[in-house]
Amino acid sequence: MGLPFVALAAASSIMYKNLGISDSKTAFWTSLIMFPWTLKPLWGPFLEMFKTKKFFVYTSQIFTGALFGLVALSLHASSFFCISISILAIIAISGATHDTAADGVYLNELTPKLQAKYVGWQGAFYNIAKVMSGGVLVYLAGELEKKTGIVNAWSIVMFLYGIIMIALGIYNRMVLPAGGSSKQVHSFKEGMNTLKDVIITFFQKKYIWYGLVFIVLYRFAEGQAIKITPLFFKAARADGGLGLSTSQIGVLYGVFGAIAFVLGSITAGYFASSKGLTKKTLLILCTFFNVPFAAYAYLAITVPTNVYIIGAAVAVEYFGYGFGFVGLILFIMQQIAPGKYKMAHYAFAGGLMNLGFMIPSMISGFVSDYLGYKEFFIWVLISTIPAFLITWLVPLKPVEEEVTEESIEAE
């Protein structure tokens, strides 16, 4: 699930930066192509017409791998940006389809208690994608740039993305559980009727509007910070950046960030499992998620040269990110998804969650260009306020209540 998303959201930004594309253009287009992760609920019900959820998981992985190979080839064209960004947009559609099916496997194979217990591990494995994409592969690209040139370096890296995805597809075809057969829908008309019922029942859920505002605002600061941070790391010191090489950025994300993120995700999973999803728990998770963005504000203000200080800031932010993101996932799993259309409603909420990330990401480049890096990261801290307000205000339903509703709806 994580590799295509991180490749499009983060690694592609560094690639285009190195290929001479402006920050504002890079931030806008690499955010816009993420839109399929918002729209995925619209075709989710049609996945019920064919095969199993497992089938869509491994076929989309293999298809995505082939598309990454095309991205690698496109970088050698004179109009490489238009061609490659178009292929990445198709990868986004494939990745979003994959995520809907993969979430269905997770939700159908695990009980609510196990979902809470392993959500941290899910986050940890999701963020192995951050290690591979923002760490290992970016570091490799940086080293290859010195030997083969920027275009050849990133072509090799895109081919590696493709090989990894195809290998995962073959692996999951052999070992993944079915996640439930798709036999509820047999025609396009039934699919449309199911989609209509999915939407109606989604908006009939108790406290749904509070929940939707929570989902969108929780990531408002993150959407801006995550998109600009690698560009800030790469920018010249004369422009207010840290002037790091591509390889150094890979080490920061692949070592400092990766270790911190995995620890944060796993710790949060057990924390949430033991405490349950209460208002206090959610506020703690929100705090861990948002406050560490102050580490990037510190870097932008002081502009340090010591890579260990920069690495420590990355570790602080990534631990908080890994710990706090569990709050959003668990909220969707236990407050939004339960009911007759568990997979579809989870996908619907996940799409809106991505919208909460995508819109601030799209504008972040323009804001950063206007304010400068130092003022931008101060603005990011101000942008965390809406997340705290909605976390304080959002009402929570007992998990048992949703289980009862699910049983009634199923009848």
Top keywords for this entry?
globular, mainly alpha, 80% helix, 411 residues, 19 helices, single chain, disordered C terminus, Growth Hormone, Chain: A
Binned, the helix content reads over 70%
CATH evolutionary superfamily = MFS general substrate transporter like domains
Give the number of domains: 1
Report the strand count: 0
Q: What is the overall number of helices?
A: 19
CATH fold name: Growth Hormone, Chain: A
Summarize the structure.
The protein has 19 helices and no strands. With 411 residues, it is mostly helical.
Overall description:
By secondary structure, the protein is mainly alpha-helical. The chain has a single domain (2-177, 189-394, 401-406), classed as Growth Hormone, Chain: A (Up-down Bundle). Helices cover 80% and strands 0% of the residues. It is built from 19 helices and no strands. It has helices spanning 2-18, 23-32, 36-39, 53-74, 80-109, 112-126, 128-148, 150-175, 188-203, 208-217, 220-234, 246-275, 279-290, 294-302, 307-336, 342-371, 373-382, 385-393, 399-410. It is globular and about 55 Å long. The two termini are 33 Å apart.
